[in-house]
Amino acid sequence: MRQPCAYIMASKRNGTIYVGATSDLPSRVWKHRNGFYEGFTKRYGVQKLVWYETHTTMQSAILKEKQIKRWRRKWKMELIQEENPQWRDLYDEISAYAPLSE
Distance (Å, rounded) from C-alpha 96 to C-alpha 43? Predict the structure, then answer.
């Protein structure tokens, strides 16, 4: 599933959130979940994929990421709530495309 995406990950429902963009969502989420990235997501246990949006170009995905990062936290929470009211971990939807190991 190499597809440009903007995405939001969370530590738990209404918890710490992280907004990102990538051209390979399954691999990126897998790396976040398995501690490959030092920093924010590892430090705060941000491992649940709670929202994502596909784009036709990486430029478009990055623009969406930057737009969402400028939003108030309340707006980000509302976006997640609209699309994923149960705050399910959406990784299962895309994990068939994830790497077996890295």
Answer: 27
Residue 32 to residues 65, 68, 70, Cα–Cα distance (Å) = 17, 19, 22
Backbone φ/ψ region at 47: left (φ over 0), alpha (ψ -120 to 50), beta:
alpha
Question: Which two structure tokens, joined as six digits, stand for 27?
Answer: 């691999």
Give me the tens of pLDDT residue by residue for the chain, a chain 102 residues long.
589 999 999 999 999 999 999 999 999 999 999 988 888 988 999 999 999 999 999 999 999 999 999 999 999 999 999 999 999 999 988 876 555 443
Residues near 27 by beta carbon (within 8 Å), at least 6 away in sequence: 98, 99, 102
Three-state secondary structure string covering 26-38:
HHHHHHHHCCCCC
